[in-house]
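JOB MANIFEST
job_type = single_chain_structure
chain_count = 1
residues = 723
[input]
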Amino acid sequence: MDDSKAREALDINITTCFETLPPLPCSLHLTQCVTHNNEILICAGDKETACYSYHTQKNQYKHICFYPDGVELGGHCIVKCVNDSNPNYITLLSFGGAKYTSGHTLVMKYVSVWDKDDDANENECKTTELFNQWIPLVINSNEKVDDDDDDDEEKDSDSDMVNYTYSSNDVIHIGRSEDDYYGVRALIAGSNNHLLFVVYYPGNIDVIDLNTFEYVKQTTLPIDKDNSIRYPCFVLKTENGLPISKDNKKIHEMMLFYWSIGFSIEYNEDNNSFQFHNVPVCTTLAVNLYGYVCVSDCILFFGGNGNTKFITSEKVHKYSMKNNTWMKFEQNLPFALNDCFAILNEADMCVHIFGRQYGKRDASAHIKTKVDIWMREETQLERQLIEIDEIKRELNEIENGSEKKEVEIIIDHWIGSLFTKSKWIDELNDIILSYILVFVFYLYSVCCIRFSPDGTKIVSSSFDNTVQIWDVRSGEVIKVLKEYFSWINDAQFSPDGNIFASCSWDKSIRLWSTNLWTEIRKLGGHIDWVTKIHFSSDGKTLVSGSYDRTIRIWDIESGQEIKRIGGHSRGITDVQFSPNDQQVVSASNDETIRIWDVNTGEMLKELKGHSGSVVRAQFSPNGQLIVSASKDETIRIWNAISGVQLKKLLGHSSEIRDVKFFPSGQTIVSCSYDSTVRIWDLDLEVDIQILKGQNWARLDITSNGNTIASSSHDGTIRLWKAL
């Protein structure tokens, strides 16, 4: 398929690839599901013990049962066992529990709740009252696994496992009291599907014989001591939809993913040993608790959670087990989902996804999508994303401060092999090769930094109540201004460079001459901290924002207030003129962004979507977009005319402190308390470089886009320059 046809197919599928299904009868998060014929069995969730059957043809739910009183759920695991001798029912095994808690190990024989009119099932149910309810796992020690050959191996942890009895001696508990099974994941494999592989916190993997429920093997994953896992993606490695086994079904292959951890795992049944092979993880898969499902030789990933409650993803990824490659799709989920579970219904080849819909408290969502949508050829943009991801992984192996030659070798390799015809390569050398650092030291945290229009100077302010002007080339201090007795929140040069302005906790704004470095005048009127200032493009007016919840516009020549704008319900954190000076954008601790008409003071648009204080809102160079950054750890791109959110960028793992457009308007740079500066491509919606260092507070970019300045709470300013 050529790219135009792939793009045409994508355009059609963007609006039709997901179908929203009826909501669950109750709020279920961190649930576990299995399939049975045309049913999806939904087995409880966090603090909810109800179990339901969803019928994929009837599009309805039916209640099955509750877990017994006292069983704590959330983070539990369900595996399915198929009984070839009686296809009318399946056996489910449920286990889990936090460390040093009672935990649970329960079993249920399930017969369809939809087939009560079927004589065979009705008679089956009358023979015992132990169907469709969770009971302790009690197994007769004389029972054996059915060792009949199973040519049709099942996926998704299906098994011809032990034939349970419920009237005999030993109560079985999977896991010891010291094992932390909160977020446990498991699968069934083995030459006779008789081995249970269990992965659990902090990085353990056990093998349990399902004949005897004795441990066959206990070991740990080869991860750093600072890392740990909960809720990993843990699946059998498949080829053409079947589990991969070698040497007469004695070597079993599995895959495990968690955050940046990836392993291909081999277990040799004969010598009872594991081999672990590192597998790269897509750099844009910056979440966990995603829904995942195996389809053919691929794993699909849907949504997921970030480091905090604020981060929720709507992205879809695919990993090819055959090719060891990743892809981020252009299409997203219809809404962000966290605490996800995904399951394949083979009857109609649809993936069903359950999760918590972001922004709607306790709202459980159920959507489905057809598999073939995600097995198509990549579009040109998606191929670009794959290539950039490979570049980023190689660059991440180079520590900050690496020799220029090492970086150039990698860039030359990728330019020659991948990006000959890509528009993105035009900015690659300017952006990726930003490894030169210039250090300047303050004694206190640096509050702000701004380049002069010609890029030769930097004005900065600090919590030591000073404003300093620096020579960019030499790194030497040109002037220190000590007239303040309070912290200075912001400082900025005028467009012609002849004036700079500063604002402070003392509620004032001051204008300074850059010729004599003396104060020209003080602007007074705000009744609380002045947080941000910005010159109009002609340098004749200045806009200011304050914790007094007002925006004020000032005449530079007279120093008079010419417009006062109010509307935010909490303190204002950022203000900026549009490029044509006709609008002002503001950000606030009230979690909103607002666009105002400069002449009338009327609010034109209110942009809502962030779930934390908005710390920055800036127009793009052409005025058509607004970029915002928030304490909710997200960056969002908005249409400046309609106010519609266009994109949400995920990657930072802590509060974002600043964000700026590059002059091209296609790239942005951000900094965060997660100790990274990230450069983002807006078309691709990925961070194309991560600069690691200190606890970054502010940043700025020269007018030609060749140099980034970043400041930190450790008192340093760093210049990141193109090599």
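[summary]
Residues 1-23+290-378 form a domain with the Neuraminidase fold (CATH 2.120.10.80).
The mean pLDDT is 82.
exit_status = 0
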